[in-house]
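Support case: adenosine-3',5'-cyclic-monophosphate complex. Customer-provided input:
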Amino acid sequence: MLSYAAHRLFPVLSVLLALVGFTAVAAHTLPGMHDAFGLPLRLVLVVIWAFFFLNFAVTFAERANILPSLRPALISVDALCAVVPVLTFAFPDGYLCCGIWVLQLVRNSTAFRLISRVIAAEGSNLVGVMAIFITLLLGSALLVYVFERDGQPEAFGSIPKAMWWSIATLSTTGYGDAVPKTMAGSVLGGLIMVCGIGVVALWTGILASGFAEEIRRQDFVRSWQLVGAVPLFRNLGSADLVEIVRALKRRTMPAGTVICRKGEPGDRMFFLADGTVRIAATPPVDLGSGAFFGEIALLTGEPRMATVTAATTVTVLSLHAADFQLLIGRSPELASTIKRVALERQGKAS
Ligand code: CMP
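Agent response - structure generated as follows:
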């Protein structure tokens, strides 16, 4: 029961209550709401705080069941959400500390794990671009200080002040609160804007390709694990296996989903990595994990001979017709197994 609460119920409730809590904090900052509903709003915060205490206690009690790589982050977030609101009693505006609960929104997010992997993988490239950024920032702050300090001492009277202009210009934000007036300062401004666009583009490119690469890698690892459930692939050499894993598309579907329909043209075949499917043949046939189906339409070019429906939640790996032809060309043994099973199934149907 505690395990169920820790793994299913509490994360969802935490996100909902974090949102309610933040809304109550935000409402508290509106003078009208604060005057009219101050007490109920504080009551809401107290109830949510009690929940986050309980949530922390449950996470701590269940820490052995949390993945070791996630354990420190999850325990820290829950501890902060339980403890930081104590500061409510320390300052007049202390209730703002309840804003810490927004951390619950990212607590279970896979995005952070993804970002940390991308940063680890692309770290040296990101540091390289950061070095260019810092060089441009410091260099332009120094130059704009030299060009503008006499005419505009309030905006450019020191290098730290000039840095504010540099960072706003380099990041292409351009607040417009400090603008060079000399010819040299304007030319510098133009150059820095162009360089800023280049640096932002470099950052975006590195992060975008890092994300795409990481998602592809995770996809490959998941499909690789699932391929192990299909006995047909066991005798494939590792090079062929890598090719097939790249070609397979993974999909998880709930019970009742029609995977392919009788009479439709077939453009792919399926390998069942997990669950059970029902073939609407006469008599109906159930296939379990490791089985394959949808091969007959690819071998004969005929429409699908039966409707196939997920009898439970299923995970299927589909192989497109073009990749199927490549696969049977590369592995005669696998081709003959698929053809033999297809013939048996056609024999049963006729
Ligand atoms: P296909 O005709 O492409 O699409 C429906 C699939 O159901 C078919 O390929 C076979 O893979 C599968 N199928 C049809 N009849 C049977 C059967 N009697 N036993 C097992 N599988 C079948």
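The pocket of adenosine-3',5'-cyclic-monophosphate is lined by residues 260, 266, 279, 281, 285, 293-297, 304-306, 308, 345, 348-349 (CB under 6 Å).

Case will auto-close in a few days if no follow-up is received.
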